[in-house]
Amino acid sequence: MAAEAGQPAPKSEAPAEKKDQGDQKKGAKDQSKAPAAVVAASEGGEKKLSNAELKKKAKEEKAARRAAAKVTQPQPPASAPGQGDSAKGGKSKPKQDGPQAGAQHGKTPAPRSAAPMTAAAPKEAKPSVPECFSHLAMAKGVNLTHADKDVHPAVLLLGQQMSTMAISDSTTRLEATLLAFKKLLSLEHTSNKRLQNQVIDSYTTPHGTTLSRHFTSHVLNPQIVYLTACRPMCFSMGNAIRWLKLQISKIDIDMADSDAKKLLCEAIDSFIHERITLADLVIVNTAADMIAQDDVILTYAHHHLVERALLKAKASGKRFKVILVDDPFERVGLDHVKKLAAAGIPVAYSPDFGALRTNLQESTTVLVAAEAMFSNGAMYARAGTCDVATAAFDLGMRVTSLCETINFTERVSIDSLTYNEIDPERNTDEEFRLLFDTTRDKSISAVVTELGICSAKSVPAILRKLEEL
Amino acid sequence: MPSVSTGHALDLEKFLKSLKGQPLEASVNSLISLLKRRQIKGSEPCAVATAHILLQVVARSKWHDVDSLLINVSRTGRKLVDAQPNELVIGNIVRRVLGLIRDEASEDRGDTADESASDAPTPTDIVPPASISQQWSSKRFDSANSVAPPPRPPIVSSYSSINPPKSLFHLLSTSPPADGDVSPFRNSGSSTPTWRGNSGQIHALRSEVIDGIEEIKDEISQVDDQIAASAEVQIHPGDLVLVHQPSTTVERFILRAAQKRKFTVLIAMAPPRRHSAETTQHTTFRKKLSAAGITVVNVMNGGLMAYMSRVNKVIIGARAIVATGGVVADAGSAAIARAAKEQGAAVVVLSGVYKLSPESPFDESSLIEWGDSSTFVSFADGPLVCGAEIRTALTELIPPELVDTYITNLGTHSRDHLSSLISDHYKREDADFHIWEGALP
């Protein structure tokens, strides 16, 4: 922190002075810029500004930026380089404002702070989301140069991976996020430090405050805002971050910094272990047990839980067939088919929803995995799952959904357009694609979780149980 | 149909041009191979081609009475149906033409009843007028003794009661009004001797049947316009209309509505195939709609349940409609219709009456046409080719209970009304022409 604080200060001062020179004739209106420059210069050192102060500062900076823009227009070449830096510093400021607001209002993934979006707006003005779906969230991605300087490099990388859908499914995203947050806390100084002059490698609590009061608002929140800006958080990330914040707030004020950090790291490790690793294992085993000899299992696209369950069942010596219906516009099923075929499972591959009913009539059970479960029993999963589940239900087949309880949310969704995401690559009139859909509880026979097999209707009961744990 | 790219249209045109220069047999054979190779595909091109070839059969094949004409037509029809059994329209057109011949023959017979009486038939030619099928089977029996007669269609039994002795029959046949119910069977059957040697009559019949086939051709060409006429009634301002891989019929329908109404169109796109620039899909349609101020969104989802809570109407172009009301349409539309039902969106099927088939499938999977598996999976992909069975459906059947309305060139119909449309357009005795003709060489 300290090293970093010194650096931006002179930079932001220089353009401010230039501005002053250029603006002298403009008179009283521009007076606000001088204090702004001063505050900007001192920002690194004074982290403990109150909310109101931050807001005020942000406003002043905005004014200064506008004035600067006016000035640079007539004489661009002279002040351009300095200008860019000052604008960047200015942009990052309101972003820091965002997390506090977000943290106070709740941990929802939906309310993304407005600042990063407006920052990205001029660049992304061209593609227009069709009006009737404009309420839905979309992974916008954040240019690395626009990212808040407080964001940890590991989180920066993760954000890019998420926005490009390199890491896309709910549980994987959750695990990656928690591991990245762990790096925030990690005690070791990595070798990266020498390579990068601006490394927020590990966190040390500033003097005069404690980890439990400082870490969440000043370190964690900028990361969350950045990640949310890259791609809207999934429900499991919301759940886990709420849990993490609770853990942080529970830390004793008097505890030593290193102990507190160690405690948090251990907590994160055990959380990942219990809620993801072991949970997956239990679900896979349960699902594999549910597969009977000579079953014909129809599954949709690809999910690692389904894949593991099928391979596990095969490994345990069961003889069964798989019909895989793929997502026609994102052929994630092809690799899945190859893996299954390599394991010796007879597979039929249908590249789209053609003859879905015929395929279903041939099969005995439908196995899908959920991205999340709503508390009304609705299943949030890859777009198309609902079509498969409904058609299967029509034919009186068993529809089994696999889902870790970390993906359960207390929210309620009755149609697919309440919560959804638009494919960031296909978000215009010409190409439009939703990533998820919502299957109502009536077409789901069973939900396999790490706590056992339950009906979709009992999701709220499980949520209650989880609160008690 | 969306599948009718320009290449296939060319094949149809080429075929139609070739009709004049070729002998009849060669034309029939070339059409059969075009159908088998799917070079003519889609219901409209198939219907047009069938109508043309049947016109040739009527105009150029050798026939000296109504029955031999019926045999010629149904024999050719049978070959065409065999070549592409999934295109129900081929059978429909053949049935329409058969019905047309029967109608014309019975009309003419009514006019010329007196002449027929004077024209005494030779005993060998006289066949019990029980049914055409019986008559035909006996003829075939003569020609190929080794082959057993095919089973009679069940409907025949109802007529077997009126199987009078020959002499009595001829007494009766001289006075048609005495018959009470003038069934086409009786007329065509008893008309066998009527036409014998009467070249003028044959000529008249020929030209009348040809006129009738021309009318069928006109009907096919006007279907899109007539269906589009009811667009304004069906599409309301502000609607969100979903169309699945719109055929020209659907495009015309939407465009007509766009002249008067402001609404939003979602186009469910066909999945991208391996070797094609799919970016050109429906672009002209989009342009025309945008010019009319309609918002068009191309939807790239396979399952469309996610959109259905907003969608008001789903419009599907049929490839064929079976007697139960089930709709043969492009693969994927059954899932869409099911999704629409789930959310209460109306499913509207657009189809010319010529696509309405009196056949009903024994099993819905029999109407699925399976396509080329290499459209989505490369043959170079070893593990996949060896390890997996690839199923690429091109068409599928939408169950009748998922369809709300049928719009044809005759208007808007409910499912219950389809049976009366079928009985208006096809003769009962032609319903199974390709089955009872099955054993013919």
Write structural notes for this entry.
The complex is a heterodimer of chains A (469) and B (441). Helix content of chain A is 51%, strand content 11%. Chain A has helices at 2-6, 8-23, 33-42, 51-72, 76-105, 114-120, 153-163, 170-185, 192-195, 211-230, 235-250, 257-290, 304-315, 333-342, 356-362, 385-394, 459-468, and strands spanning 137-138, 296-300, 321-325, 347-350, 365-369, 372-373, 379-382, 398-402, 421-427, 432-434, 436-439, 446-449, 452-454. Chain A contains 17 helices and 13 strands. Among the domains of chain A are: 1-105; 282-468, Rossmann fold (3-Layer(aba) Sandwich). In chain B, strand 5 (320-321) and strand 6 form a beta hairpin. The radius of gyration of chain B is 24 Å and the shape is globular. Chain B has 2 domains: 6-223 and 428-436, Four Helix Bundle (Hemerythrin (Met), subunit A); 229-409, Translation initiation factor eif-2b, domain 2 (Rossmann fold), CATH 3.40.50.10470. With 441 residues, chain B is an alpha/beta fold. A 7-stranded mixed sheet of chain B has the order 3-2-1-4-7-10-11. In chain B, strands 5-6-9 form a 3-stranded antiparallel sheet, covered by helices on one side. The interface between A and B is large, with 55 and 50 residues. Strand 4 of chain A pairs parallel with strand 8 of chain B.
Topology:
The complex is a heterodimer of chains A (469) and B (441).
Chain A (H helix, E strand, L loop, with lengths): L1 H5 L1 H16 L9 H10 L8 H22 L3 H30 L8 H7 L16 E2 L14 H11 L6 H16 L6 H4 L15 H20 L4 H16 L6 H34 L5 E5 L3 H12 L5 E5 L7 H10 L4 E4 L5 H7 L2 E5 L2 E2 L5 E4 L2 H10 L3 E5 L18 E7 L4 E3 L1 E4 L6 E4 L2 E3 L4 H10 L1
Helix pairs in contact in A: 2-3, 2-4, 2-5, 3-4, 4-5, 5-6, 5-10, 7-8, 7-10, 8-11, 8-12, 10-11, 12-13
Chain B lengths: L5 H16 L2 H13 L6 H18 L5 H18 L4 H24 L1 H6 L13 H12 L12 H5 L5 H8 L10 H12 L3 H30 L2 H4 L5 E5 L3 H13 L3 E5 L14 H9 L3 E5 L13 E5 L2 E2 L5 E4 L2 H11 L2 E5 L31 H6 E3 L4 E4 L6 E4 L2 E3 L4 H8 L7 H4 L5
Parallel strand pairs in B: 1-2, 1-4, 2-3, 4-7, 7-10
Antiparallel strand pairs in B: 5-6, 6-9, 10-11
